[in-house]
Specification:
Structural class: alpha+beta
Radius of gyration: 23 Å
Strand content: 25-35%
Helix content: 25-40%
Number of domains: 2
Strand order of the largest sheet: 4-9-8-6
Largest sheet: 4 strands, mixed
CATH superfamily of the largest domain: Ribosomal protein L9, C-terminal domain
Shape: elongated
Order of helices and strands: EEHEHEEHEEEE
CATH architecture of the largest domain: Roll
Mean pLDDT: 90
Number of helices: 3
Low-confidence stretches: none
Number of strands: 9
CATH topology of the largest domain: Ribosomal Protein L9, domain 2
């Protein structure tokens, strides 16, 4: 297998960021990266050209990281409360889904979180407290407290 050095023009997960020179298999660069415009030859001109884009990209990554840290600090002190109907043995008629947790965080904090970043171990299908882990960005995550209270039965008139 022959190795080729390429300069990435786009961030590719598990490979590198814009402006980085990485080693890849020659066939991968020739057949995939170059035809799609994801990488170019690492000439002096190209390195200088993408250095500016790399600086902009690095600033954006730093901004995202700071935003994630601020959201982590905000969520660490909160308990999300859901009210549900339950059976007599405290099992819920319908579980609390990641979409509902994301919606409540969006209304409370104004931040949209992808549901794929919300990890519920075992599901939330009983009354009481639960812990939910949310991966906000790279290695920044937070454990959020979720409490499910029983809906009060309606009084008939």
């Amino acid at each position: 297998m022959t190795i080729a050095k390429v300069l990435l023009t786009t961030t590719i997960e598990k490979l590198g960021h814009v402006g980085e020179v990485v080693n890849v298999a020659e066939g991968y660069s020739r057949n995939y990266l170059f035809p799609r415009g994801l990488a170019v030859e690492p000439t002096d001109h190209n390195i200088a050209r993408f250095a500016r884009e790399k600086a902009v990209h690095d600033a954006e990554l730093l901004k995202r990281e700071e935003k994630a840290r601020a959201l982590r600090d905000k969520l660490a002190d909160q308990t999300l409360v859901f009210v549900r109907k339950a059976h007599g043995d405290s099992r819920l008629y319908g579980s609390v889904r990641p979409e509902e947790i994301a919606a409540q965080i969006a209304s409370a904090c104004g931040e949209v979180i992808e549901t794929s970043r919300i990890h519920i171990v075992g599901g939330i299908d009983t009354l009481g407290p639960h812990a939910v882990s949310i991966n906000l960005y790279k290695d920044i995550s937070v454990d959020v407290r979720v409490r499910v209270d029983e809906e009060a039965p309606r009084k008939e008139e």
